[in-house]
Structure formats: C-alpha cells, structure tokens
C-alpha cells in the first residue's frame, strides 16, 4: 500500500490599507513569527469563504476577497522529526471591512501589526512562510486574477456517497 501525498491547502489574505499591510505575529515552535492572516482550508467551505474566515479569526477584521493573487507552493522538512511538509497557498486581495471588537484573536496569535513593505522586507528572518513576501510583492506589482477562475462544486457543501469509491 502506498502513501498518497497530500499537500496542506491554505488560504491567505493580503490586506493593504494606506500603504501598510496587516500581518499577524504568532507563536511557533521557532518563536514569534510574522505571517499574512492565513490558515488551513476547512471541510465544507470554498477557498474564498476559508480566506474570509481565517482573516476574521486571526485579526478580528472582516475581509471580503475580491481577487486571487495567485497559487503558491512551498516545502520544508521539520528539523525536530524530519517530517516533509508542503503547503499549497491560495492568496487573495480584497476589501477590508470593520474590526469586530467583541472577538478575540485566534489561539497562538499574539497581536496584529500594520507594516510597510520596507518593514516587511527588513523582517524576512521573522517570516513564518517564504510566501509572505512573495504574496506582498505580487500584490504591489498589481497581480489580480478574477475569482471566476475558481470553482466550488456543490459537493463541497453536500458530499454524496459514490458507489465503488474507496
């Protein structure tokens, strides 16, 4: 029996306001690290829904994705146990809504920060993902792909058993 390779599918929000980008500072096994508001796609949600949810959970700001920045892939090996990890990231630009003061930051998130592009570039040694910088640079370069490039089949919301499927 062979093991099927399954990359970790993540969604990320690239949120800019007045020349600054909203990042999270989070606890990791390597200390405090900076990242886009991002996280794993959950079962039963579209990529766009997952991005809006993660942004709200990690920052307490409402965010509505309006464009796909790109699809990114990265890979690393965990030093502690040798685990080979691949992330497949779907990054979105969009509209920032209101902050919800009733919400608390997600577990592990220490605080949110609004940083300039130069501050983000200068802090590369603190980035949780090498994709943080690339996503920001693509955003600044004007990369925007239509959300119509993404399709969510209705089965995502209501999966049906398939005869003969294993």
From TrEMBL:
It comes from the Bacteria. Its cofactor is Mg(2+). It is an enzyme of class 3 (hydrolase). Residues 4-137 form the Nudix hydrolase domain. Its EC number is 3.6.1.-. Monomer. Pfam families: NUDIX. GO terms for molecular function: nucleoside diphosphate phosphatase activity; ribonucleoside triphosphate phosphatase activity; thiamine diphosphate phosphatase activity. Keywords: Hydrolase, Magnesium. Belongs to the Nudix hydrolase family. NudJ subfamily. This is Phosphatase NudJ.
